[in-house]
Write a structure and sequence with these properties.
Number of strands: 11
Order of helices and strands: HHHHHEEEEEEHEEEHEE
Strand content: 15-25%
Radius of gyration: 19 Å
Number of helices: 7
Helix content: 25-40%
Length: about 250
Amino acid sequence: MGTVEHVMLHELYEIIAERCQDLCPGYKVLPIPQICFLANRFAASALMQPKILLEASLETGFDIIQLHLRFYKAYSSVAMRVVEVINELNEEKPPEESFDLMVMIYERVEEGDPRNWGFCTPEKFMVRYSPRTKGISLGTKGGSWTQGGHPRGPNYKAPRYPWHLIPKRGDSVTPNSLAMEVINTGGCFCLKRAVGFDLWGLNDLSFVAQPVEWFGKLAKVVLVGVRYKDSHLLEAQRNGLHKPTVIEESYQVI
């Protein structure tokens, strides 16, 4: 039901945009994918109010699966709305008090009734949604650091392009990644610290990865990450997992 609501509001935004183009001189509908991004943002904003969602996010350790169950909204809607709320919160805080959040949702690309799906392999999954706060900048060129320690330009570059250090929309499952471990084992994983993004460790990350099953078949893998210095924000999510596999450290592998 949550996915249906999101799709309906998404389509409503596009209909309104088309009507505005007909009625308002000079207004033009944005092309795809820009219009899709704004439509998704509109749908997520309409479905979840910021104050209540922020309180629930902090309470659950930004557990997208638990938030999905609590608000009964699509995983993608929850992820996009949480990231947007954190972006708005960061604008009101000084830089030293802000924090970054990233979510990657891998979806199984297989048609038909999930109960009839075949054998589960990593090749059947891809990143469908990858919202992240503004402090997480991806690119193929290195970024620089200001005197205050804040990045200018990409702070997660991809030296082996097109293999990205942080998974983003359209990416497949990379070898030895958290997503591959979840797909192969069906369990939950906690990566305490991912290193190797800069010389000072300012961009080190911490992640939690969980599976989502439909009718006993793995359908999604949800990754939630923060900077290592903010890893306490994920504590409630980690504590709620059933016998997760804990990885102490990895080098540029998420």
